[in-house]
Design goal:
This protein is mainly alpha-helical and about 180 residues long. It has one domain (about 50-179): Orthogonal Bundle (Tetracycline Repressor, domain 2), CATH 1.10.357. The chain is about 80% helix and about 0% strand. It is built from 9 helices and no strands. Helix 4 runs parallel beside helix 7 (about 100-120), helix 5 (about 75-85) packs antiparallel against helix 7 and helix 6 packs across helix 7. The longest helix has 27 residues, at about 125-155. The chain is elongated. This is TetR family transcriptional regulator. It holds the Pfam family TetR_C_8. InterPro entries: Homeodomain-like_sf, HTH-type_Tx_Regulator, TetR_C_Firmicutes.
Length: about 180
Amino acid sequence: MTIVIKRVLASTLKEIAEKKSLSKITINDLTQACDVSRQTFYNNFKDIYHLVEWIYLKEVVTPIERGKIYDKWQDALTSIFQYISENHVFVLNTYRSFGKEFLEKVLRQEIELFLSNQVFKKIEVTKEEAKQVEFSYSFYTYALVGVGLDWIEKQMPESVEELVERIERVMLGEIISLL
């Protein structure tokens, strides 16, 4: 029953966020729209931030965490940016209401999982090469998070496919040499 309530609260929050800034949505707004008590909300989440984090965790991070294997790393990266594109109003609302740091934390989780599951897991290295691979992992995490935040901040001016294609051109050189 708890997961059903959480999903109802999450979908209702996303609906309300289509029309109202997340920072302006109150627990009362949400519980009235769901026809549940405030206590029901607090039994599941400590605040709106916690609910928003749960939404991103369940909708983006968990599927990647479960280790879904993609034929190509570009497909995994596309799925992350596709979620952002398909939920652009909610994502932009999160960005504007909670700040860059909140979204950066969520994106970093996604990108780290993507890199570890889809790219760097496949690389076999010696001890000498491990330091470079670790640096590359860190570098690409920060680079992809930065590119993602910039894309969000500019309100996604290019398609997901165009963005991933540009990233692919940059990444392929180093990743191929590591493989």
